[in-house]
Design a protein that fits this description.
The protein has 327 residues and is of the alpha+beta class. Helix content is 33%, strand content 27%. The longest helix has 16 residues. The radius of gyration is 19 Å and the shape is globular. The structure holds 4-diphosphocytidyl-2-C-methyl-D-erythritol and adenosine-5'-triphosphate (ATP). The site of adenosine-5'-triphosphate (ATP) has 21 residues, from helix 3 and helix 4. Its EC number is 2.7.1.148.
Length: 327
């Protein structure tokens, strides 16, 4: 079967969104080392596209685009923390292998990632690629994996991967992998301020442990007031309801981000928030026009990797099949 499939010319492209955390409450580490979370995820309009085709072995290539499209990112001198591995360590390849293991089939694929989500930026770019690869290969090989099984495989690949499948706005509990869609009637606008260097998620969690009295931490829970603002689509109380428990730790590792926050407020943001484990900074805006103004002000203040994005957006979805548009 794998020999016959080797020359199959079909291609499937799946788009996957970046995520932000409107609420990220962290508890004391569990016995397995992971931290219990209560988080409110939102998928934002910044995407990686993953294209797959059947191949005789696993391979992956990455094209850096959008915020990432400059020679410092993709060139030989790139900061190793900002380029992704091109071997079996790439989480997209790990996703592909997990899917074929699940189905007990002997198949492999060539994977191309068109990457716009900041690498090691706290926006779950790797998780987006993993989720996109699962769905792309499932469609390519007509495996008909159930949603339940896709979510379970996703959870083995990383805590943020199940949410990338879901998209929209969702609650995340457990270590973040237990996801539940949340009502969100708002049309929100965020300005995403990317950084020149990445931050390691495990390091940020370790720093959180050092900075906090772990015995004093409460069991994390989802905040009813924030959930109400989202359900009503009301911006009034939202700025004060944003919370990220990892922000202090990330800022202690990257004190320069304080200046980015200051520039964000100066640019007129309603609120500034660290994205996940950072170092990307998020600026809450009132609408698309406001987001455009804030973006221009951030560019002028010396933050070229700044872009305005709407939220919430859909989770992973097929955008082309056989190289042509869907439908
Ligand atoms: C910061 C967030 O992006 C918020 O959504 C996530 O918690 C991180 O999710 P992720 O990158 O998918 O994380 P994983 O790949 O599952 O884990 C990477 C590392 O982050 C730390 N980690 C992650 C999730 C969690 N609930 N507790 C942790 O302590 C662990 O050191 C783990 O080894
Ligand atoms: N396809 C991939 N895309 C991005 N990073 C990858 C990929 N495969 C492996 N990695 C590695 O995973 C690490 C985390 O990258 P990623 O961009 O997902 O970070 P992040 O957005 O901070 O993650 P999170 O928000 O989920 O904590 C990087 O060190 C990167 O080299």
């Amino acid at each position: 079967m794998s020999q016959a499939m080797t020359h199959d010319p079909r291609r499937v492209t799946v788009r996957a969104p970046a995520k932000i955390n409107l609420h990220l409450e962290v508890g004391a580490p569990r016995e397995d080392g992971f931290h219990p979370l209560a988080t409110v995820y939102q998928a934002v309009g910044l995407y990686d596209d993953v294209t797959v085709s059947t191949w005789h072995e696993w391979s992956v290539q990455v094209r850096y685009e959008g915020l990432l499209a400059d020679p410092d990112v993709s060139g030989a001198s790139a900061d190793p923390g900002r380029v992704v591995p091109l071997d079996a360590e790439n989480v997209a390849v790990r996703a592909g292998r997990a899917l074929v293991d699940h189905h007990g089939v002997d198949l492999a694929a060539a994977i191309t990632i068109h990457k716009s989500i900041p690498v090691a930026g706290g926006m779950a770019g790797g998780s987006a690629d993993a989720a996109a690869t699962l769905v792309a290969l499932d469609r390519l090989w007509e495996l008909e994996t159930s949603d339940e099984d896709l979510l379970a495989i996703a959870a083995t690949l990383g805590s943020d991967v199940p949410f990338a499948l879901l998209g929209g706005t969702a609650g995340g509990t457990g270590r973040g992998e237990v996801v539940e869609p949340l009502p969100d009637t708002g049309s929100w606008w965020w300005v995403v301020v990317g950084s020149d260097t990445g931050l390691s998620t495990p390091l940020v969690y370790r720093t959180f442990d050092e900075l906090n009295d772990l015995a004093d931490l409460d069991e994390p829970s989802l905040p009813p007031d924030l959930l109400m603002s989202l359900a009503e689509g009301s911006l009034i109380a939202l700025p004060a309801q944003l919370q990220n428990d990892l922000q202090e730790a990330a800022l202690s590792l990257r004190p320069d981000l304080v200046e980015t926050f200051d520039d964000g407020y100066e640019a007129g943001a309603l609120e500034c928030l660290l994205s996940g484990s950072g170092p990307t900074v998020l600026l809450l805006c009132s609408d698309a026009d406001h987001a455009r103004e804030v973006t221009a002000a951030m560019h002028a203040a010396g933050h070229p990797r700044t872009v305005a994005v709407p939220a919430p957006v859909s989770g992973v979805h097929v955008v082309s099949y056989d190289g042509g548009p869907v439908g």
